Amino acid sequence: MIGKLNHVAIAVPDLAAATALYRDTLGAVVSEPVPQPAHGVVVVFVTLPNTKIELVHPLGEASPIAGFLAKNPNGGIHHICYEVADILAARDQLKATGARVLGDGEPKIGAHDKPVLFLHPKDFCGTLVELEQA
Amino acid sequence: MIGKLNHVAIAVPDLAAATALYRDTLGAVVSEPVPQPAHGVVVVFVTLPNTKIELVHPLGEASPIAGFLAKNPNGGIHHICYEVADILAARDQLKATGARVLGDGEPKIGAHDKPVLFLHPKDFCGTLVELEQA
């Protein structure tokens, strides 16, 4: 079912510092910050030859990553995103095994303008998993 | 400096259950368990089209991931591994910026029989980063 690893999302307390770290210290190609008000985050995309790292920082009130950063003040890996060919088929197949889909279970339009869902970390080795329709 | 994302390592409390989850529920290609006594872990490799997930479970006394699993009983993402062309050049360049290399700073032979180093999470957005010579 799962295809490519689309990205690894790292929540960061200081987006400018994290961007400089990946650009200058680690020598990677980084984007400008991309505000995503609908998701409550600002994202810098780090392009690697085979996948992406997303540096994610809270935007606005009640950002979905504010709690994570409160618990992890240095930042940390927030989630990983796998691509699937058909997100509704994937969801139904996963739910049939008892896996929990977060929220109301309906795909939302994610950061790449494609339908996404999040799966419960307790059902996936303590890892928050995003599925994105490829 | 950094090239491909070589793998994401997920520490798991139950290797058989995690393997079944990735193979049967998520439909990915998984390896047999590979004991790595020199590293104190048993690893199942999950092959994705563009990178790997490594499901890592403690092996023997004083496994380097025992403490992580004690703090994260459901498991969780333990580290990410970036490839570099020249690990000694990468190390020296990173150290010159003040970044901390774990251990004695000398590359060890890692799980793929290639030289690896680990970088201090506090210097890399709260993320344990492994560098592997490609």
TrEMBL record, chains A, B:
Segments forming domain VOC = 4-134
Which EC number(s) are documented for this chain? 5.1.99.1
Q: What class of enzyme is it?
A: isomerase
- Entry GO MF terms: metal ion binding; methylmalonyl-CoA epimerase activity
Q: Which reaction does it catalyse?
A: (R)-methylmalonyl-CoA = (S)-methylmalonyl-CoA
Keyword terms? Cobalt, Isomerase, Metal-binding
Gene Ontology biological process terms, A to Z = L-methylmalonyl-CoA metabolic process
Alphabetized InterPro entries for the sequence: Glyas_Bleomycin-R_OHBP_Dase (IPR029068), MeMalonyl-CoA_epimerase (IPR017515), MMCE/EMCE_epimerase (IPR051785), VOC_core (IPR037523)
Q: Does the keyword Isomerase apply?
A: yes
Protein known as: methylmalonyl-CoA epimerase
